[in-house]
Amino acid sequence: MAKGSDTRNTILEQAMATSSRLGLDGLSIGGLARDVGLSKSGLFAHFGSKEELQLEVLAAGVEKFIEAVVKPALGTARGEPRVRALFAGWLGWPEREDLPGGCPFMSAAYELDDRPGPVRDQFVIYQSQWLSTVARSAAGAVEEKHFGKGLDVEQFAWEFQAILMAYHYYLRLLRDDQARERAEHAFERLIRDSKAQATVSS
Amino acid sequence: MAKGSDTRNTILEQAMATSSRLGLDGLSIGGLARDVGLSKSGLFAHFGSKEELQLEVLAAGVEKFIEAVVKPALGTARGEPRVRALFAGWLGWPEREDLPGGCPFMSAAYELDDRPGPVRDQFVIYQSQWLSTVARSAAGAVEEKHFGKGLDVEQFAWEFQAILMAYHYYLRLLRDDQARERAEHAFERLIRDSKAQATVSS
DNA sequence: GCCACAATAGCACGACCGTTCGTTTTTGTC
DNA sequence: GACAAAAACGAACGGTCGTGCTATTGTGGC
To answer: How confident is residue B6, by pLDDT bands cut at 50, 70 and 90?
Structure first.
């Protein structure tokens, strides 16, 4: 009986696309059902509640992100190359055609910041995991002596994330076609200072 | 007949608070009416449409922002002090008690990025004005010889904005009490590199 | 105190929301 | 092909949404 999980995937795929445009709150059972050609109640039965749907959409998004950005980077050499791969991989992420509204986590970050509940809690966990992935990659670069050994890797991750956020903002809100270029500039400055290690010391 | 504009202000004040938590889309006529003690239709009559309400909330927010952040900075000395004043002023902005959900423009940036229409158009104009205010302040610092003369002031504004976005993200989503400290670190690095001017050249 | 008019209330509308329930169709197994 | 389980459907629920109307209340100027 694999039919069920097939439609489930179809639903989640569509839901990820929609939530990338309208946010997790923009998801509606009825609208989603129309999009995938199901009845409202038929779709609803797969999840049991809207909150459960949101949680599953989030989980599916994370899985897709790991597949698209994290795993490829983990396949590259430890140290600076891996840090660069994470960055370059991310730049392509909000431009996938199956994410017509850009990175679904960016919208979620601002949607959920004042909405307590399980969805927010889970999301914060996911985000922390991502940030510690970035920090760990920077720590690897320190160990490989690509970055200065005084580097504060948490601060590195902080500024790394800052660049991604501004990139998304300029790309998707302002429709600035120099967004990638600007992001790469900022990133190179971060790398340069991280090598010099005078950067970001405590 | 000043009664009308009094209630208008009350409504807008409440609407700004709500939209800082739930976003511009989270505003609802009925909910807002309940909050300020009006009937739904009574409140509605002040604006004529929800879109008009959103536009007015946006405008009121911008006015408040200018009063709280931009004007004080323009009162300081041209050059690096003014750049620093803009930055420091902004750090306090999302912590005002009349903005319980943080900076209303941050949420709006991600809400509106895929919703074409007058609200988005107006918002993009406001954001561009802010970014050019930042760029102009950096240009002032170049002229005052506080920053290196090769500095790309647009890139400076880009990275300035990046820090603000990450600050808001760490502060409001992750509830990181080191957010301010981290932001200041990142800012000092930006300033330092802008003085060195090797920074962000084209 | 009257009058014009602004401000607010009350009510109804169609649409959509998440959710429940009972029924029907489809599916895989024997 | 029979049968049980899974999947999808259709209708209805109480709500809330934005938006129209018409009526009522309140206010300022004369």
So the answer is: confident
